[in-house]
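Example with several molecule types.
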Amino acid sequence: MHQFRYSNSEREMEVYGYDSVVKSHCRMCHGGCGVIVFVKDGKVAKIAGDPDCPIAHGTLCTKGLASAQLAYHPDRLTYPVKRVGPKASGRWERISWDEALDTIAERILAYKEKYGPESVVFGYGTGRENEAVIYRIANLLGSPNVLTAGHFCYGPRISTGIITCGTNPIADYENFPKCIMMWGNNVTISNPDEYKGEPFSVALDHGAKLIVVDPRLTRPAARANVWLQLRPGTDAALALGMLNVIVNEELYDKEFVEKYIHGWEPFVKRVNEHPLDKVEEITWVPKEKIREAARLFATTKPAAIQWGVAIEQQNNCADNDRLLMFLMGLTGNIDAPGGQVLNRTPNIVNVGQFGAHGMLPKDQFAKRLGGERFRLASRFAIIQPKCVWDAILEEKPYPVKMLFFISSNPVITRANAKEVYRALEKVEFMAVADFFLTPTAELADIVLPAATWLEMDYVGDFWKRHGYILPRRKVIQVGECHSDHEMLNDLAHRIGQGQYWWDNFEKALDYILHPMGITWNDFKKMNYIRGEVKYYKYKEGGFSTPTRKFELYSTTLEKMGYDPLPQYREPPESPVSTPELYKEYPYILITGARPPGFFHTENRQVPRLRELHRDPIVEIHPDGAAKEGIKEGDWVIIESRRGRVRQRAKIALGRDPRIVAAQHAWWFPENKDPGHGWDESNINILTDNALEGCDPAMGASNIRTLLCRIYPEKKHPMKKKNRMSDYRD
Amino acid sequence: MNRYALIIEEFACWGCKACEVACKQEYNPVDATNGIKYLSVWGDGPKLMNGKLDFMWRVNVCKHCEEPPCAQACPVEAIMKREDGIVILDYEKCTGCQLCIDECPYHAISFDEDRKTVAKCNLCHHRVDKGLYPACADNICLAHCIYFGDPAEIEKKILEKRKIRGGWGDIIPKAIKISRR
Ligand code: SF4
Ligand code: SF4
Ligand code: SF4
Ligand code: SF4
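Resulting C-alpha cells for the full complex:
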C-alpha cells in the first residue's frame, strides 16, 4: 500500500517526470506562502504548497496556484516599449532596455535640474516587495515624494503602531488565541500583509471564540459567537463603546494599566463621553451586543484582533487603528503569547535603512507634498495622492513633471478616478513598470516589463513585521522581463547614484543579509530565518515610544498639533453628516470586499482566476432590490455625486437594507480598446478625494463608505450564463 | 482493500476556491483558457437556514456514492465504481448521451462541450494509484477541510475536530451517509 504524504515532491517528480523542483516564496499578494515549483522543459509545470513554510504550512490560495498563468500570459509585456501615438492611443513600439532606461534617466536628470528633484514622483501600489528600492532611488535623488498606498493601507498601522507601542502588533496565531476579534476583514479570502487565512482557521479549530465586526454577513460572521453588524464607517465609535465597557466594568489588565500606560485619565474621560446608548445610536449595533463582545474579548485570554485595511480607508483611519491597539493593550494582550506580538525581525539591514531615508536632505524633506497638512504620514515618508494630482494639474505648491509607477494602477485604485486620469493625461513624462499594458500604463511614455515572483531572487517578507524572512528563488526567465529591483539598480547607475548601488542586484541581497554574516547564496539554502522570539519585552525596557509607555495619549500627535486622544468623526457623506444629500442618494455604499483570485486590479486576465468571477458584483438587500426594481444578475447603475458605473446585482440578506456593497478595482483586459474599460465598473469613479474628507493625520482617502443611488440598467440585458461557472458569487 | 473517499467538511470551508484552481491546474495545461470544472465552490446564502440567518460555502464535487445512481443510468457502462470506492467515468466509453446528469443527486456531472462527453471528478485516480494525494486534497486547503482516505477514519477526524471546536458544525458531511435512491 502506498504511503500518502502531503506535497510529496520526490514522488511527484517520478510520476510526472519533472526535470527539477525549486522551493520559493509566492508574491501574488503581499506574499508569504512557501511554494514548491515543478519545472519541465524549462517551464513551470506545477505549483504546490511547501509544508515547511512557517506562514501558511503548505496551503495556498487561488492566486498562488495560478501564478504560472500570469507568468506565461500571451498578453504579457515581455520587452520595453515606448508610446508612438498620443496618450491612450495604444500605439507602442519595441525598444531596448538601454534606450528605455537612458530615456528615463535623461528625463529624471533634466527635471531635477529645471524644477528640483521633488518634481519627479515615484510610486508603487500595494508593495510588490519593491518599496525599499523605490524609496532608495527617490531619497538619493532628493525627491521626498513616493506615492504609495501607504496613506490608507498598512502605512497607518505602521505609523500608529510605532507612536503607540513601538511597532505594528501582529496576531499570534502560532500560540492559539482563545478569542479572535475579526474587525473589518476576512483573512480567509484576502490573506493580508503578515496574516494568512490558514493559521486563523487552525486557531478556530483549536476552539477559539470568534467576534466579527462587519456590515456584511461573511462566512466568518456567520460562524461567529458574536457578529457586530455596524453602520459603515462607525468603527471608531464602536471601539470607544467597547472600551467604555472594559473601563467601567474594570475588565482591563490592572497591572498593565498601572505600570505601562501613558495618559490613563484623559483617556478614561474620552471613553466616558461615549456611553453605550450614544454608541448604539451612532453604530446601529444594539448595546447588549457591544457589551457582550467587549466582555468576551476582555475576559478570554489570550485574545487577538485580526484587522486590516477596511478601517484604514476611512476618515478615521489613524484613530481606528489606535483604538484597536488600545483594545489589545488594555486587555493585556500586547506582546503576550497568543495575543498581539511586537515581533523582532532578524538582524538584517531593514527596509528603512535600505530605503536610505536618512540620505534625504532636510530641505527636501520639508518639500514633501502635503507634508504640512498630513504630518503623521509625512513623518513616515507617505504622501497623499491628491496632493500629487494637484501638483500636476495646478502646479501647486510646485509642478510635478514626471511620474514613475512601478506595480501601480492608480486610475483604478485611487479615489476620484476621473481626476487621477486627468492628471496622468497631463503629466509631462510618465514611466510605468508592470506585467501588462494596464489602463494606467496606456497613459505612459515608456513601459518596462516587470518580472513576476517566479522570475526573481529576493529576500521575501523583508518588509513585514511577523519576524520571518524567506528566500524567494528565481525559477524562470520570461522574455526580457526584469525585476523592479534589477531595473532600478540599473537606472540608479544611469542617474549618477552608482556609488550607492551594486553591480548586480544579488549583491544588494548580500548587503541586506550581511549583519547576520551570511550571503544570498547561504540564505538560498535555508527555509527561512526568524528573529528572536520573546514575549513581554516591554517589561524590561518599556515600549519604544517617547514616554517608554504604551501611549493612549499620544505625545507624538500632540507635538504635531493633533488631538492626542482618538475620536470618532462621521464619514464625510452619511445619513448623519449630509442628510440632504442622503435624500437624493439614499443608500450607503461600501466598497472593496475582496473576492478570491484578484489582488486589487491584478489577475483579471488570468483565465483560472477570472473564471471565478467574470463580472463585477454589487450586493443589495432584497428590500432595496424590490424597491428599485432590481433582479438577481441585472446590470445596475451605481451613482454618486461624482459619477456612475455599472456592476451586476447580487441580492443577498445579511446586510442592512440601507447598504449596498460594490466590488473595487475592476477593469476589463479583454476589452482591447486602450482604456480597457477603466471607467465602466471602477468604483473609484464614485469615491471622493477632497482633502477635507481625508484622515487629518494620515491623509487616508475615505473610499470605503459614501452615499449612492442604484437602479437597473435596462439597455444591457443580462448576458448568457456561462457553462460551468454560472454567475454565482 | 483500501477504501478511498473525498470528503469536504463544508462547515469549515471559507470559500477561498483554492481547491477549484488546484483541480484546474491538474487537468489543464497552463495555456488553456478554459476547460471544464470537476469541482466548484459556491456561496449558499446569506439566507434563513433552520430559522437562523446563515451563510455557507458549498463545494460541488462527485461524492463517489456507495451505489452510484449515475452508473446505473449509463447505458454503455462508462461509469464504474471501483472496489476501493472511486467512481470512475471512462471518457473513452462515454457517448455523451447525458442520461447520467439528471440522475446525480449532487449535480456533480456536467457536459463538456469541447469533448462532447460528460465530465466529473474521477478522484484523481491517476495520482491516487501512484501514491499521490488528489490535487485538491494535497494540503492546499487553508481550512484543512478536504479529506482523502478511508471514510471511517475521516469521519472520526471530523468528529474529533468538532469536539475541540466546541460543538461547532452540526452538519454531517453528506458523503459519509449515501443512501440508495
Ligand atoms: S496568500 Fe498570497 S502569498 Fe499565499 S499563495 Fe496566495 S497570493 Fe501567494
Ligand atoms: S480550498 Fe478548502 S476552504 Fe477553500 S474553497 Fe476549497 S474546501 Fe473551501
Ligand atoms: S451520482 Fe453523482 S455524486 Fe454519486 S457517484 Fe455519480 S456523479 Fe458522483
Ligand atoms: S479529486 Fe482530483 S478531479 Fe476530483 S475534484 Fe479533486 S482535484 Fe479535481
